[in-house]
Specification:
Radius of gyration: 35 Å
Number of helices: 42
Helix content: 55-70%
CATH topology of one domain: Alpha-Beta Plaits
CATH architecture of one domain: 2-Layer Sandwich
Number of strands: 4
Structural class: mainly alpha
CATH class of one domain: Alpha Beta
Largest sheet: 4 strands, antiparallel
Oligomer: single chain
Distance between the termini: 63 Å
Shape: globular
Length: about 900
């Protein structure tokens, strides 16, 4: 059709070209020529290239029907890189439309295409500048509106929500927005709410977009999204209606399958009392050859159904079968592993298996997937658990073996290897039986093919293969695949390292239910390599015992603080104290035991008394003796200020004054982020005022308990300085280099370094917001504070449209946000007015004074890092 139009218009182009040589002469004929040529040549081809790229983005994105579909298809950088030529061609043609046809009405649309090219290439600043330029300079409302909506989308992409709010507010006042732009606007609003997690607001925006759409495929997709959101909200009748609507418009088979599956779930399956009929439904779906690619989904959904019926073991079995099914969607396997990790975490409390299922889940997701960050964060805790648990179990087993006589050790290892050989052969036999139960194996058996346990052909018999591998291993050892392996002059060091020997672990290990394929051939380490792992030397045992001491302590803290398992935490910490009564970690262990016992209401008084009796001067003792102490961010701020004051006195050799400030601070704020550096400064003062032996003893104790690596390194240097040739120098003044090390390594708030080392950037011309940190008590009554602030704003800032909201930074700390301010100066003016003119009884002066301002860009960093003190250090030097 387009070619016919071009053919028809060609004579007109030829005639017009005779009279229209200039791109500047603004006559009717000239305009007609340039409008027509620009539209059907340069602009047309540039737009086609953009549309082609957007088609590839849709085609190459694999929809994840297990989650609510995203409003817009996510942009994969690999897709952009693979289609770089399309973008360059689009830019080239759009530039020609601008350069060659300056008086045509297709100049502004061509600028918009250039903005989209930059947007797709990730050059957001250039793209945004182009869209802003069009909003200010274009006289074509349709182009201007489309540019504003694309600008809004880029702000949402970057999490610049305050800037996005300005655009939304601006567009809400615009009239005569075209139907297509309105649809784009409502979809972008849905994307805005999706990105912010405001699920309730997505649905109205999707409804508005639906009213304006004529694309059947797009309508089907939006109906499916609505079905998912209603299903998640528990509104099954609405969900069923929209899943059925999603079946119209010729959706692809994948969406059809999921729409039918979820329709049945919300209509019948979840409510049916006829459990056999529900199970039969899933079985029929599984048998249908059209659903071969979705068998993992079917087994997964059946497993979820069984879990809801309380059949946990059956659910695990079905999930384990599901991961073995071939499937094109790797994310689906990730969801299955994730579900298994949740079962082993919450239902079975098996944290080791939880860790390994989380590992498997993360392998199936991309870093850009929505749940990747949450899974990765959770995995860090379980990685630490597994590391300490496996180390503790292995070391305990080996140390027990080291207490046996050499003859008993050899006998134990021989028995262990025999049992392992029997286990491997049994596994091969079981695997062989499973292989022979398939329909194809049975059919092939009639033709004499197909393996069996009794097959005479060696390579058809997995049991024979396993026996052969073990026999080879017994004779020749565990040799890597290499040429000339029988050469007699090869040394034993050439062999690969044998597997770690941990008898107790192996005795309790289970094969993972979800193993995709068993290893065809397994080998055993030789006896000598296993015997060599037993720590018969006292030095090795001592090292392993020290590792166990750390592991008991780490597991106790992980279980209490991270995994919320106070009872299990008590078990590990009590074992620590029982096995290592002289451990320097005892004060913190008692403290954690006190907290866990208090939570379980199991006589925490025992640990209260032990702390006071054995460690009366410990910061942990002071903490439980002063339960009403100031804590949280305010304690961090005040203790940090006191530290800086004490350090100045220390530098001026006023040691008694410095010590007085330090000890008063440690009494008032026993446990803050500044505790370690306050303690180290107090130790340094003891080096000036007390004996050398006490100084060394305190440094050694500090090295056992402190956690900050920089402080530990510096303390170690101090200890070395008084443990060697310099012992007699303790009364001398510190060398300049040592004094510098203390000020930079310990005093992290040193103004000279805070700006250069800070993750925050100074940008006072950017949009700013005002922040008021709040503790838990104040956050509970934030409604009264917000109402008072709105009255304050209505009276003093009636035309600024200031907005108020709250965000939880941590369990103990929330922040109240007031925005937006066009720059730093305006935000600081507001802060001055707030401090001097805003008063409410529920807001203490010290909380008011803790307020600060921050740019939008820096707020994104703060929201990610969750460390207000870190930002405050930057703020005090930058503002």
């Amino acid at each position: 059709m387009q070619k016919n139009i071009l053919f028809f218009l060609f004579p007109i182009f030829l005639v017009l070209s005779l009279f229209s040589c200039s791109s500047q002469k603004n006559s009717f004929t000239n305009r007609l020529y340039h409008n027509t040529t620009a539209r059907f040549n340069a602009y047309y081809y540039a737009n086609e290239k953009i549309l082609e790229l957007e088609g590839k983005i849709r085609e190459e994105y694999q929809e994840d029907y297990s989650q609510v579909l995203p409003v817009f298809y996510p942009i994969d950088s690999s897709t952009i890189e693979a289609n770089e030529a399309l973008l360059e061609e689009a830019r080239e043609m759009a530039s020609k439309a601008i350069d060659w046809h300056k008086i045509s009405k297709w100049v502004d649309p061509s600028y918009f295409l250039i903005g989209k090219v930059d947007y797709y290439k990730g050059q957001f600043e250039e793209a945004q500048n182009t869209f802003k330029y069009l909003n200010v300079n274009s006289e074509q409302d349709e182009v201007r509106h489309e540019a504003l909506i694309q600008l809004l989308k880029s702000f949402v992409d970057l999490g610049q929500f305050e800037d996005a709010n300005f655009v939304i507010d601006y567009l809400s006042k615009e009239t005569s927005i075209s139907r297509e732009n309105k649809k784009f606007l409502y979809k972008t609003l849905a994307y805005y709410y999706e990105t912010r997690g405001e699920t309730d607001m997505i649905v109205p925006s999707i409804f508005k977009a639906l009213e304006l759409s004529n694309d059947k495929a797009e309508i089907s997709r939006m109906h499916f999204m609505l079905g998912q959101m209603y299903q998640n909200a528990g509104l099954d009748a609405f969900a069923y209606e929209y899943y059925q609507k999603a079946l119209t418009g010729s959706p692809n088979y994948e969406r059809t399958f999921f729409a039918q599956l979820y329709s049945q779930q919300v209509a019948e399956l979840e409510k049916s009392k006829d459990l056999k009929r529900v199970r039969d439904y899933y079985d029929e779906l599984y048998k249908d050859n059209k659903n071969v690619d979705f068998r993992d989904v079917i087994l997964f959904e059946k497993g979820r159904f069984e879990k809801k019926q309380g059949n946990l073991e059956e659910a695990i079995r079905l999930y384990s079968l599901a991961v073995k099914e071939p499937g094109e969607n790797e994310r689906q396997k990730g969801y299955i592993y994730q579900e298994l990790s949740e079962i082993y975490l919450h239902e079975k409390e098996d944290f080791l298996k939880t860790k390994y299922y989380l590992d498997s889940a993360l392998e199936k997701f991309k870093e850009t997937d929505r749940n990747y960050a949450d899974l990765a964060s959770k995995k860090e805790v379980f990685d630490q658990y597994a590391k300490n648990y496996e180390l503790l179990t292995r070391n305990d087993s080996l140390i027990r073996l080291s207490r046996l006589s050499p003859e008993e050790q050899e006998k134990f290892v021989s028995n262990y290897l025999e049992k392992e050989e029997e286990r491997l052969i049994l596994e091969a036999e079981l695997a062989n039986k499973k292989e022979n139960t398939g329909i194809f194996e049975n059919l092939l058996a009639f033709g004499g093919a197909g393996g069996s346990a009794t097959s005479s052909f060696y390579w058809d018999n997995p049991t024979a293969i396993q026996r052969g591998a073990l026999e080879f291993n017994r004779v020749w050892g565990n040799r890597p695949l290499t040429d000339n392996w029988r050469r007699s002059n090869r040394s034993f060091q050439d062999n690969e390292a044998s597997e770690s020997f941990s008898p107790q672990i192996r005795e309790t290990e289970e094969a993972p239910e979800d193993s995709l394929a068993s290893t065809p051939i397994s080998t055993l380490p030789d006896k000598a390599s296993l015997l060599s792992q037993i720590p018969n030397e006292p030095e090795t045992r001592e090292m392993m015992e020290a590792e166990m001491e750390d592991a008991y302590f780490n597991l106790g803290k992980l279980l209490y603080f991270d995994l919320k398992q106070p009872e299990k935490a008590i078990g590990y910490l009590e074992k620590l104290i029982q096995e290592f009564p002289q451990t320097p970690k005892k004060p913190e262990a008692y403290y954690t035991l006190y907290l866990a016992s208090q939570e379980l209401n199991t006589n925490p008084q025992i640990y209260f008394e032990l702390l006071n009796a054995e460690f009366p001067n410990s910061q942990f003792t002071k903490s439980i003796n002063n339960p009403d102490q100031v804590s949280g961010s305010q304690a961090n701020i005040e203790s940090g200020e006191n530290y800086k004051e004490a350090y100045v006195y220390f530098q001026n050799r006023e040691y008694a004054t410095a010590r007085s400030i330090i000890r008063e601070t440690l009494n008032r704020y026993p446990l803050t982020k500044n505790t370690d550096r306050l303690l180290l400064l107090d130790i340094m003062i003891s080096g000036k005022l007390e004996s050398l032996e006490l100084y060394k003893e305190r440094l050694q104790g500090y090295l056992q308990q402190a956690k900050d690596e920089k402080l530990l390194d510096f303390a170690e240097e101090l200890l070395k300085a008084v443990s060697g040739d310099r012992e007699n120098d303790i009364d001398n003044e510190p060398e300049e280099s040592e004094d510098d090390a203390m000020s930079t390594e310990v005093n992290e708030e040193d103004p000279a370094d805070s700006l250069s080392n800070s993750p925050y950037q100074e940008n006072k011309g950017q949009t700013h917001i005002f922040i008021l940190p709040m503790d838990a008590d104040l956050a509970e009554n934030v409604g009264d504070l917000t109402a008072a602030l709105e009255s304050f704003h209505a009276e003093n800032y009636p035309n600024q449209r200031l907005r108020t909201g709250t965000i939880a930074i941590s369990r103990e700390l929330s922040i109240l946000i007031i925005s937006p301010f066009p720059n730093a100066a305006k935000s600081m003016e507001y802060k001055d007015a707030f401090l001097n003119s805003f008063n409410i009884d529920s807001l203490p002066e010290e909380i008011k004074n803790s307020s600060f301002v921050i740019s939008i860009e820096n707020f994104q960093q703060l929201n990610k890092r969750k460390d207000i003190d870190e930002y405050r250090s930057f703020y005090e030097n930058a503002y």
